[in-house]
Amino acid sequence: MFTLYPAIDIRGGKCVRLVQGDYNQETVYNDNPVEAARAWAEQGGKWVHLVDLDGAKAGHPVNHELIGQIARSLNVPVQTGGGLRTVDDVERLLDLGVSRVIIGTAAIEDRPFVERVLKEHGDKVAIGIDARDGYVATRGWLKTSQVKAEELAVQLGSLGAKTFIFTDISRDGMMQGPNVEAIVRLAQVSGQAVIASGGVSRYEDLDRLAAHAADGVSGAIIGKALYTRSIDLAEAHSRLGLK
Predict the structure, then answer these.
(1) Which of 4, 97, 169, 189 could form a disulfide with 71 if both were Cys (CB 3.0 to 4.6 A apart)?
(2) Cβ atoms 6, 74 nearer than 8 A
(3) What is the predicted pLDDT for the residue at 10?
(4) Sequence-distant (≥ 6) Cβ neighbours of residue 153 within 8 angstroms
C-alpha cells in the first residue's frame, strides 16, 4: 500500500514552505492552515501531514492547539511533528485528535523517552529521520549529529519503531526529486515502512517511489509541488491507481 501525504508546514499560525529548512527562506501559501487541510482532504488525501515549524525550532510544541483544531475538523487522520520532547507533549497531541506523532530530534538526544513512547503508543508513533550527507540532523535541521541515518533506523526498529519518515535535506524544497536510492536503502536495512519526504516535484517522482512499495517505501509526503501546482493531488492518486 502506498499513501500520499499532503503537507502543511505551520509557522506563526500560517501555512508556509521553507527552502532546505532555512527559516529565512519562507513563502506563505495560506493564512489559514485549517482551510488548507480541508482542501487536501477534499481532493482525496487519505492523510494530512502537519509540521509545527515553530515547535521544531523552540524544542516544544507551539501550534498544538491549531493542529488539534485541524485534526478534529477532518474526516481523515493527521500525523504531526515538531518539537516533541516529552511524554506529555506526545499524549497532549494524541488527546487533541492527532492519529500519529513524529519524533525527530529526541530520537537522537533522548533514547529513554523514545523507548517509552514506542512501548506505550506503538503504531501511533513515527520516527522522523532528517539526513544531511547521510548523517541525522536535529533541532529543526539547525544541527547535524554524528549518527548515520541507517544506523538510527536499525536501532529504533529493534525497539519497536514501525514507521520512519525520511528526509534528505539537500532535496527539500528544491524541486529536484527525492533521493530514491537512500529511501529504498533505509527501508531495506531497517525492515520497516519508510515514508519519503523532500524533493517530490513531479508525477515521475511518485512513480519511482511507488515502484518500491514492495521494498517498504510506504508513501510520499508532498509539499511545495502541491502549492506550486506542479502536482495535482487528485491526479496523482488517479495516476498511481490509489483509491
Answers:
(1) 97
(2) no
(3) 96
(4) 127, 129, 161, 164, 186, 189, 190, 192
pTM over 0.85: yes
* Catalytic residue set: 9, 130
Averaged pLDDT in 10-residue chunks for the chain of 243 residues: 96 81 74 94 96 91 96 97 95 97 90 96 94 80 78 95 91 72 95 94 96 98 92 96 86
Angle, CA of 109, 224 and 215, to the nearest 5°: 65
Cell of 233: 493531488
CA distances for 47 relative to 109, 219, 220, 227, 230, angstroms: 28, 10, 11, 17, 20
Which one-letter DSSP state was computed for residue 151? H
Sequential DSSP letters for 108-131:
HH-HHHHHHHHHHHGGGEEEEEEE
Three-class DSSP category at 61: coil
